[in-house]
Amino acid sequence: MTAWLSFLVVFLCSWSLRDLVVEACTCVPIHPQDAFCNSDIVIRAKVVGKKLMKDGPFGTMRYTVKQMKMYRGFQIMPHVQYIYTEASESLCGVKLEVNKYQYLITGRVYEGKVYTGLCNWYEKWDRLTLSQRKGLNHRYHLGCGCKIRPCYYLPCFATSKNECIWTDMLYNFGHSGYQAKHYACIQRVEGYCSWYRGWAPPDKTIINATDP
After folding, report:
1. Do 148 and 192 share a domain, yes or no?
2. What is the Cα gyration radius of the chain?
3. Is 119 marked as binding a ligand?
4. 102 and 48 fall within a common domain
5. What is the pTM of this model?
6. Does the keyword Heme apply (predicted)?
């Protein structure tokens, strides 16, 4: 009886620990522009190899990448060869496929290494909208001084002239929303920030008719 109770206690503890680890990765929704502005490195790359590194409790996955283009991080690391992430998805590790897709990858640099995870913005390149690609090339840079404030329930109001109210959470969750896919929050010549969608670089003649 004692042996059975001991087994039951160990089993329940293991089960509880497993549930805790599985639920450990929780990410706050973030607009692609904020993901861009808050990252040290933003690149377009193809994964050409991977290796499990024996460090940490679950190991770290090292992806070898072929960098196609860099959008942010020139001063920190002009060329990225490796991307590091937790080997376990429960610890926010990212699963990337080798020799199959080009990816948009954002990450932070620690001790000379680029790290990414589920809470960073990463996506297959062909799934990005035209507006998101234009944002990476030009528009997101113009909005790094602006603040995108999520709206979870109405009413929502901007509290300063440098805020854009992000309402995707009322209908979607994070990157999949319409504003995330098609709009950038940029600073106008007049000094205030507002949502922008268009085909040419913004200027002071643009009115708010394009706002969501």
Report:
1. yes
2. 21
3. no
4. yes
5. 0.79
6. no
